[in-house]
What we know:
CATH class: Alpha Beta
Order of helices and strands: EHEHEHEHEHEHEHEHEHHHH
Number of helices: 12
Shape: globular
Oligomer: single chain
Largest sheet: 6 strands, parallel
Structural class: alpha/beta
Number of strands: 9
Amino acid sequence: xxxxxxxxxxxxxxxxxxxxxxxxxxxxxxxxxxxxxxxxxxxxxxxxxxxxxxxxxxxxxxxxxxxxxxxxxxxxxxxxxxxxxxxxxxxxxxxxxxxxxxxxxxxxxxxxxxxxxxxxxxxxxxxxxxxxxxxxxxxxxxxxxxxxxxxxxxxxxxxxxxxxxxxxxxxxxxxxxxxxxxxxxxxxxxxxxxxxxxxxxxxxxxxxxxxxxxxxxxxxxxxxxxxxxxxxxxxxxxxxxxxxxxxxxxxxxxxxxxxxxxxxxxxxxxxxxxxxxxxxxxxxxxxxxxxxxxxxxxxxxxxxxxxxxxxxxxxxxxxxxxxxxxxxxxxxxxxxxxxxxxxxxxxxxx
Length: 350
């Protein structure tokens, strides 16, 4: 039996949500623990999670390796893997990449909508690609086993991250822009490059990323997922729901504004409705993830493909990504990356 894994959530965590995870049979979740927080503030968020692990040991525990997914399944618990949606947590210190990895961080976005010290966000007028520091940080993330996530980054930055990284990267929560042209959704060019490099896409259920928004049907979502499987291959697609369950609307302000502006930035939402949009009526919490599996079968995916999308692909990706890079493997990956870059320059493929 394949695991059930959600590639991204940012809920207002509580015992109720942890119990819903168990009712839904969710084996592992990548959770956002930090947006615009500094290193010290991120550590305080980890302290908060440590208290939850202490209070609810029968429900959740911190995941560090892919083997923890199997440990969770055997114990009937949910493994929690930490991630950052912005590189603010490393401040301007590349040494904090390794420190945060040792504390359990397993994913880090190089930018969140705006320009960062590492890369351009998808809302910037000019996408300058990876910065000098960005290239160095990607190399360090590759070394220690911290996944490069480009969910909120611009197209050039994302393509450069795919090319520069010696290990496959992830876009943990987004959909194809050809299906719904939100700024956060990704072009087919990006999706092809992601799959060709061995990366992973987590399909998002956040209404601003869906065709029809909150009115998007399960059938429409699963038809889109089936097209992604056809475009990228069945080994490179998973779920990254971007579930923000029970969060107050004030959290949207923190996500979009942080400390960079004094004005309200409405981002993907309407100026008339800056808060969280209602979720589709078929997906409200972790107990509804299995409904997606049923929808994927109805959309034409076979049993093995459904199992891969619902968690098998993330499980494999975790096993390949969370440990330190082997020197030989990194060298081979770098050679392949350089060959792809040369082919693109010469117009011969890639």
